[in-house]
Design brief:
Layout (H helix, E strand, L loop, with lengths): L23 H28 L32 H9 L3 E11 L12 E14 L3 E4 L1 H4 L4 E5 L5 E10 L4 E6 L20 E6 L7 E12 L11 E4 L11 E3 L5 E11 L2 E8 H14 L5 E2 L2 E6 L1 H10 L10 E7 L4 H4 L7 E5 L2 E2 L3 H9 L7 E7 L2 E7 L2 E2 L4
Antiparallel strand pairs: 1-2, 1-4, 2-3, 3-6, 4-5, 5-6, 7-8, 7-10, 8-9, 9-12, 10-11, 11-12, 13-20, 14-15, 16-17, 16-18, 18-19
Length: 402
Amino acid sequence: MPARRPIPRLGQPQAALPPRLGNPAALLRAAGERAAGLASVFAPALLLASCNGALLLPGQNRPQERTRISDAPVAVPLKPSSNVIVDAVQKVGPAVVRIDTVKRMVNSLGGVLGGGPAIQQQQGQGSGFITRSDGVLLTNAHVVEGSSEVHVTLPDGRSFSGKVLGADPLTDVAVVKVVASRLPVAPLGDSAKVRPGEWAIAIGNPLGLDNTVTAGIISAIQRTNALGEGQRVPYIQTDAAVNPGNSGGPLINDRGEVIGINTAIRQAPGAGLSFAIPINTARQIAAQILERGFASHPYIGVRLQALTPQLAREINGATDECQLPEVNGVVVVEVMKGSPADQGGLKPCDMIEQVDNKPVANPSEVQLAVDRGRVGQLLSLKVKRKEQALILSLRPAELPRS
């Protein structure tokens, strides 16, 4: 192989001058030498190119066309379309936070027989969402219960120390404050307008996986028996996947509005349901916490029982003191002495038909109707005592926070 000639650089003299014009033999010899030099330079490139099928050497046959597996026409690119879930998450997601807590507990066996340190730390994690740009956020009471330290981390990586302004165990709502400004805010919707079948989107930090989005539908509303009888919260039920760590995070609709706070789950083989505190309830409790540091709950002091025709027949056959109509309804089982119900004239065996001029069908509806009232303000009850219809007026008292 002839040696390659050095590639000339600008400013360097040529190694040899071309032959003068007019000498055919010299011209042919010079042309041959230049062709040999070019071939030595470009031959490797031609070889590599032909291996890729882009270039072919002279005389080489073209490869046969591959066998077609489809004769469908080329698809026309689709126009970009909006996705309601994506849009909703983009609207609320920046305001959803991770809440890390530290609980310090006294170890009664600390230092005794190797029982560990006297003070033990327990770490927890949950979710929350910012409702005011000056650092007010909502979460579950059980997320921050007993916490010595609270740390709030935003999706953009910023982290703050948080202070629990107040928590209400009855509704499982808590308010946390961080020192910050111009924070992203999650818009609040109207949970009274929620209907079964609508989109339900959960955002939070389940199982330690930050900024996780799951979606489903609203399965039911007004679930007062989701976590047992006598609940003060008409839960929103959804089939959106919710796991430990989602607690305190928002449940949002397809318009990017918070309609609830994810708080509890019920699992079964092949299925799972979750429950959220309606945002209207959470808004009311949070406002009270911000105003006075705690939530106020009225109570009247009775124990109630759901009545059915079969139960009414059994009671009527067992005693003459309590004769009840064989219908579905709510019956008073016990009245606490000195309670607002006692002072208002309510007695055992009374059937409560209406509270504040609204019909009630079970004890949970009575509880919710009383909870919508205010401490010290008159509350009317329509009751049936044997064959007599009565209208009673009660003044609910403050439920002891202990």
